[in-house]
Each structure stands twice: as C-alpha cells, then as structure tokens.
Amino acid sequence: MRSSEWIAFTFFVYLALVCWLRPVSPRRRREITGVSAAVLAVIWLGAAYLPPGARDWAPLGYVTIAYFLTGLLFVQPSETLEAWLAAWDRRLLGRPTHRFSAWPAALVGYLEIVYMCCFLLLPGGLAALMVAGHAGVANHYWTMVLAADLGAFAPLSVFQTRPPWLLEAPPVLADTSVHRLASHFVENATIRVNTFPSGHVAVSLAVAAAVVNQMPLTGVLLFALAVSVSIAAVVGRYHYVIDILTGAALAGVVWLVVALTGM
C-alpha cells in the first residue's frame, strides 16, 4: 500500500478499537466498528485492484468518512478543558465576541466564505497538481493531508469540547448576512464538536505545504488561504485560539516528518 493508504488504514483501525474503550452507546459502537471495517476492506482491496487514477482520489472519501465517524466518539464535553480554552481566548483577545466588531464587513465576509469553503481545498490542491502535470505526487500530497487532518481528529476520543459558538453569544461583527450563512453551514453540515487541534487549520496548511514545491505560486496562494482560514476560525468563533496554534504546530510536525522520511 501507499504511505497515504497506510495512514488511512491505521486511523480506521484506531477508530474500530478506541470506540470499545470509550463510553459510547452500543449503537454508536456498532456503527463505528462496522463502518471502519468496511473502509478498511475498501482500502486493502483498493490498493490491490483500483487503477492508479482512482487510488489518487480515494483518500478524499477516506478523510470525509473519518471526519463524521470520529464525531460519533463524542460523549460528554470536558467543561474544565473548555474553561481553560476560553480563558486563553479572553487572555489573548480580551472580549472575544466583540474583539473583531470594528473589522470591515467585506473582510469579515471574505473570511467567513473562506472558512465555509475550506473543505474544497482538499480536492482543489490535488486537482491543481494534476492539471499542472504533477499527478505523480498524489501519494505525497495525501500523505501530508491525511496525516494532518486525521492527526487532528484522533484526539477527539479523549479531548472532548464544544466549539465557542455553542457556548457564547453570537459574535458582534460588521457583516451579519455571510456570518449567518456560515453559521448555518457549520450547524448543519459538521459534527458540531470542537477538534483540538483544529482540523481546518492543520489540513489547510498541509495542502499548501504539499503543493508549494511543485507549484510555488499556487502554494503561496494556498498558504494565504490557510492563514485566512485560521483567522476566520477565531473571528467567527468556530475555534479557540489554542486550537489554531496547535493545528498549525501539527501541520508543521507533519511537514517535518514527511520531509525527513521522504514519503
């Protein structure tokens, strides 16, 4: 199997095991175990029988399933950890829900749109590489992306917190229409729990790092978008500041490990 496939395979083995160690409901435990077993079979058989082009895109499905399946591990929030994260936000931002009230509506709207569309970076980065004739680095790309994203999902089995938007009053922002749209998206299209580190930050930075060597200008643009995602996560109160910092650190560790191992 490719290194990216091994990363996905290992993560679904982890999910299938950890759900039996956590106090999740029997129904959720069956769902996590069953879906994980099915995906493990797909990864194993896909490595043997799928054509290279299909294998290049399959990790997009793996990471999507992993995201929603990991959400089923959420049992009860740690109020102590939530209070610690919120305290750091107040220490660094003052009054978090009002900290960005003076920012221009156009800037806030841009940040909200970038955050809402962050998931498009995953297929977008690979598509950019393929269009430019760099399909041969697909495994390298997914190795970085999966390691960062799944690395952010894995701690959810232990560190269970709710995002700021579930615990605070709505943020006071110059733009309200785009924020309402983004909030509706987050409330209805996500697992509604906090990933610590931030998966949004870790994966967006990993996408940029995976592209920049082959396509420097595109990589710089993707890094700019990753920074925008990071800022948007705090402005819209979708993540705590510590989530952002640890997400960036995780992406840095992934980049260093991949660079040193040549994966």
Tell me about this structure.
- The chain has 263 residues and is an all-alpha fold.
- It has a domain at 78-261.
- Helices cover 71% and strands 0% of the residues.
- It is built from 12 helices and no strands.
- Helix 1 (3-18) runs antiparallel to helix 2 (26-49), helix 1 (3-18) packs parallel to helix 3 and helix 6 runs antiparallel to helix 7 (138-153).
- It is globular, with a radius of gyration of 18 Å.
- The two termini are 12 Å apart.
In short:
The chain has helices spanning 3-18, 26-49, 52-71, 79-93, 105-116, 121-131, 138-153, 164-167, 177-189, 199-212, 216-235, 241-261. It is an all-alpha fold. α1 (3-18) packs parallel to α3 and α7 packs antiparallel against α10.
- The CA-CA distance between the termini, in Å, is 12 Å
Summed over residues and divided by their number, the pLDDT gives a mean of: 96
> In one word, what is the shape?
globular
SSE succession: HHHHHHHHHHHH
Total strand segments: 0
| Percent of residues in beta strands | under 5%
Radius of gyration, taken over Cα atoms and rounded to an integer in Å:
18 Å
